[in-house]
Amino acid sequence: MSRTLVLVRHGQSEWNLKNLFTGWRDPDLTEKGHAEAKAAGEKLKARGLKFDIAFTSVLQRAQKTCQHILDCVGQSDLETIRDRALNERDYGDLSGLNKNDARLKWGEEQVHIWRRSYDVPPPNGESLKDTGARVWPYYLHTLQPHVLAGGTVLVAAHGNSLRALIMALDGLSGEEVTGLELGTGVPVIYRLNADSTVASKDILAD
Ligand SMILES: O=C(O)[C@H](O)COP(=O)(O)O
Question: Does ipTM surpass 0.90 in this model?
Answer without folding.
Answer: yes
